[in-house]
Structure formats: C-alpha cells, structure tokens
Amino acid sequence: MAVVINTNQSASYAAMNLTKSSDLLQKSLARLSSGSRIANPADDAGGLAVSMKLSAAIKRTDDTATNVSNSLSFLQTQAGSLKSAAAVLDRMSELATLAGDVTKTSNDTANYSTEFNNLYTELGKLSADQFNGISLFSTSTGTLTVYLSHDGSQSMTIDQAGLYASVSTMSALSSLTGGSISTVTAAIQSLATLMASNGAQASRLQFALDSLNVNKVNLEAANSRIYDVDVAAETTKLARANILVQSGAAMVSQANAASQIALKLLQ
C-alpha cells in the first residue's frame, strides 16, 4: 500500500465504522432509557402506527369498563329500592288481608287504611329515587343505552323500571276491604317482574364488564410486544455497541498515527 499524505484511507474507514457504532449505541441508550423499542418513528413506522391504534383502543376499553361499572351501580341502587318496595308491599298485603276479617269493626278497618295509605305514600317516595340525578324509575317504560364495546358496536338497554305504574292502581284503595287483596297481589307480581328484569340486566352487565377487563389485558399485551423494549436483548446490543465505539475510537487514533510515517521519510 502506497504511503500518501492527502488521503488517509484507513482513518476514513475507521471513522465511518465509528459513526455507525455510535449510532447503534445512541439507539440502545434511547430505547433503554425510555423503555420503548420504538424510540423514534424511523425505528418502526408501521409498528408505531399499530401501537398508536392499540393504545387508543386500550384507553377506550378502560373508559367503557368504567361506564359499564357505573351502569351496574345504577342497577344495584335500583335493586335496593325495589327490595324496599317489596317489603312495603308485603306489609300492605298483610293489611289488606287483615281488613277482610269479619270480626273487625269499621274503626279497625279505618286504622288499617291509615297505615296502608301511609305505606302507599312511601312507595311514591321510592319511585322518585335517583342515581346521580338520573331517575331510577319512570312513569312509563323508559330505557337507557349502555355501550359494551370500545368502538360502540355493541350495546344493550337497561330499564328505568316502571315502579310507579306497578303500584299506582292501589291509589284507589282509600278504604280497605277483603277484596283489596287482589289489587295488592297484582302489584306484587308486577314488582317481582321488575326485580327479575333488574337481576337479568345486572348479570349481563357483569359478564360484559369481565369481558372488557380481559380484552384490556390482551390489548396491553399485544401493544407491549410491539412497543416495549426487550431489556435483556437490548442490554446485549448496548454492550456490543459500547465495545465497538471504544475499539473504533482506538482504531481511528491508530490510523491517524500511521500517517506520521510520511513525515519520517521526509526527514
């Protein structure tokens, strides 16, 4: 190989390799410090696009699970009011039965009617119960839509149970008689239907909530495989790049020193 002054081919080649090794070292440092395999879009443009969509889906799934949980709380609160209404109706049915006793005087029946009417007023109060400002019960058949998927493609309706309509027929029972029991038992049957519907809807929401939680975990795992750095593998790359940088710097120094031979020949 000729001894030249203008071009130090060995130093240029060593400098080029040093630059490449430095780039590898910087990438490993960026990945390990951020915990992300994709430190910048150029690392994996397609993977970054998929990861962005998965990240958004994870957040929407989490929010959907929160909404479903709130809807479940709505139904649980509604169930509590229905239980209270059931206890009231049980007592009202007792009063209607006792009022049919032939040994009771009109004053006795009037006393039963007083309690009966007060309990009916309590039912009216229960029918006005709310959850965060949303009525638990409606005067007609009302429904609320609950979305069960993060993209809004799946939904179900929950009932604002018609408690008022179920018991309003008893408003005519200002005075109890033995025949009043049929009106009360009809209200109890209607309330039982409402409670069964409430339980069925709550059960479905619980399964939907479980499914959302599982989907969130799976989406997070899929996103992690794309976006998160494998620390064990990356530290190995870091060690290799670090050694290459140090050896490359040493070789650049050696290549620059080799050109000093030309000076000795000129002496």
Would you write up a description of this structure?
The protein is mainly α and 267 residues long. The chain has two domains: 9-35 and 229-266; 68-226, f41 fragment of flagellin, N-terminal domain, CATH 1.20.1330.10. Helix content is 70%, strand content 6%. The strands form two sheets. A two-stranded antiparallel sheet has the order 1-2.
In the CATH hierarchy, the architecture of the largest domain is Up-down Bundle
Average pLDDT reading: 84
Unreliable residue stretches: none
CATH class category label of the largest domain = Mainly Alpha
- Biggest sheet, spatial arrangement of strands: 1-2
Number of domains: 2
- Radius of gyration from the CA trace? 39 Å
Number of helices: 7
Structural class: mainly alpha
User: Any idea what the CATH superfamily of the largest domain is called?
Assistant: f41 fragment of flagellin, N-terminal domain
Q: What is the first-to-last residue Cα distance?
A: 21 Å
In terms of DSSP E residues, the strand content is 5-15%
Largest sheet: 2 strands, antiparallel
Q: Which topology of the largest domain does CATH recognise?
A: f41 fragment of flagellin, N-terminal domain
Q: Helix content range of the residues, please?
A: over 70%
Total beta-strand segments: 4
Q: Can you tell me the overall shape?
A: rod-shaped
Topology order in helix (H) and strand (E) letters: HHHEEEEHHHH
